[in-house]
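Tokens for alanine--tRNA ligase. Go.
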Amino acid sequence: MTKVDIAIYQRNKVVTRDEDLVLVEPEHGLRFRRKGVFFINILQESLMKKMSYNEIREIYLDYMKQHDHSFIPSASLVPDNDPTVLYVNAGMFPLVPFLMGESHPNGTRLANSQRCIRTIDIDEVGDISHLTSFEMLGNWSLNDYFKKEAIELTVDLFVNRYGFDINNIYASVFEGNENSPEDDVSIQVWKEIFRSYGIEASAGPGERIQKLGMDENWWELAGGGPCGPCSEIFYDTGKELCSDKCDVSCSCGKYIELGNNVFMEYLKEGESYKPLGRFNVDFGGGLDRLAMISQQAESVWETDKYLPILKKVKELSQVEVVESERIIIDHLKAASWIVMDGVIPGRTEREYILRRLIRRAIRHGRNLGMTKSFVGEIVDICIDQFMDIYPQLDEDREKIVEVIVSEETKFNETIEKGLHEFERWFDKTFEGKKEYIFDNSDGFTFSMYETFGFPLEMSLEELKNRNVRFDEAQVRENHLREYEKHQEKSRTATKGLFKGGLADTSEESKKLHTATHLLLQALYRVVGSHVFQKGSNITPERLRLDFPNDTKLTPEQIQKVEDLVNEQIDKKLPVSFVEMSKDEAMKLVQYAAFEDRYGEIVKVYTIGTADDPYSIEICNGPHVDNTSELRRFKIIKQENVGAGIKRIKAILE
């Protein structure tokens, strides 16, 4: 059947020019039947509703609820008590214990929309679809349904609820290797789905179902754990193939990944794989990309949430550089989300990523001719655009803008230092020489970039201003060489930090986690009832706790806190938990940070007896069974980490 076969489509009434066609109404959507074969309704382009960012999320969550999934709130970008991950980078991150077999209080079918930061993609930002900050729509089956129902749910959602054209849908599956066979189950499921829409699909190179290897279609946690093959779903944008090797994994923009079903049926231990004994599903779909397809936009940057921000960037720009415009939007949006979750720019790990995002945005602002302060205005628009989803952005607006603008001021001062350093280098390098020739063989431009945030383009401009002769291609090649060496070092140093992974559940970390609860209660009693947890981080060596307080603790207060914690250790208090509704739990606890992260059913940990509890907190664990397992508690450092926020680091001696 072709578009000519349909004369009218209006309010479920279809008039055709082919008397052999019969309109049928299956469970989802309208289809035509001829000789027992189903055909998707044509004129898909005109039937596809252009949905807003918020509508797409709402439809998704309603759809999952109709299929018996319980909603769980978005977690903070900053993982609680997990040193293995700098930022939450996937919707599944808070669910790792339940994927391993722990019973989830909300059941075996879950769904949410999770804020994510994925800095591994930072160098891809600037194209049509990559972001470092995004929302991931996710649903999970914890040993409930598996491949067939998971893929069918995804296709039904995309085609019959979002209205995406099935003729533009492509799939990838795992091709198999020595650890796991080809995923023939998923291949068969996809073939049956396509056939139900009148499409005879084959599996192979360039086909509608494409087989890919471990790099593309296998998922596992850093360091081992549950893992398995995945099946991705793509949308053909209609662009020409970039080459005869172009497939769904190509980054040319012809195919846009809409989502990915991960089938966790294996357990990786060391370098070996064995059956997990459970059949979990983890689906993730990028909300920004879904909006791009739904709104038929050229890129995610032309969708409803981003257009007002893009307009402001263009207003402040002197020239047009599309890549720089997109990087500024992405990085400052990411920065506003991160600052909202309590992080401030700094020199180590999580804080350094925030600093890098802000400074990279500023450098690209210079590419657009923005020589004056500009980040505050753009951050304001970012907050305006996302505060309907995340009200805390507006509540913390003043703090967020202040932190990011302060970093801009510091960076501009650093740039000035860089100009002075450039002048010093120039005088030293070319002193007494008649000709100024430069090849960048020593990686000078990258050194300026790394130390002073000097973009390569600024170094080239300064060289030209001083009449230095150079081959720009050679200079860029040597700059790229140094950059790639630096990237390799960074990948090695942070291996396992960006993929996500299991929270550290070693015995030492369990002890320090329990000690964190003891510390928080001690601070509440000694410092005041305004104390609550703003953030925490635990390694096997020490604990770190952030809490609101205007001044640092006095030596006397520190001693009182230490004594109170050690007193509970000496009392050999039991540690236990019960599951209850969030409303019930909120009546029991004295403080509950991050209330919006909790599902309807939560764990409540008690240190002490039911008749005489020392501490009662909402927490996912894990903890020791008794405080007698802890050694002597000692505070080793306290510091300021922002306006009205103090940080304590402590150990068990």
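The radius of gyration is 28 Å.
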